[in-house]
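Below is how a single chain appears once it has passed through the pipeline. First comes the sequence as given, then the structure the pipeline wrote out for it. We keep one example in the README because the format questions we get most often are answered faster by looking than by reading.
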Amino acid sequence: MKKFLNEFRTFALRGNVLDLAVGVIIGGAFQGIVKSLVDDVISPIIGLFAKKDFSALVITIADVNIRYGAFITAIINFVIMAFLIFLLVKGMNKLSTIGTRKAEEPAKEATTKECPFCYSQISIKATRCSHCTSILEEEQA
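Resulting structure:
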């Protein structure tokens, strides 16, 4: 049992698990803010066009209420949350790359050159242009 608890402690204190826990807590906080934004600001504005509270829009079919306004409100909540999380992750990725240098790529040697007569791209080893059949001088080859 002691070995099991030690393994669990090692797992729980690993960086990824702590990051995930912080993310869940921040997501919960964002959810409250986004829900308030949608319910208290966006839905009333959209409700101006529907002439009633947007989240209260209902269709009744055979004594069953289908609350499509609440469903659309939930979709708006999801889209805003997804966008905020996208911006948060994008910002964190940008912060993680600050201060790191990109590895410089070695300069590639040229494999082609331009024919001085027809200006076509030809192999750098060519002694005759394959397009205009001009003989290339040694100093250009």
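Strands lie at 59-61, 64-66, 112-114, 121-123.

See the next section for the split statistics.
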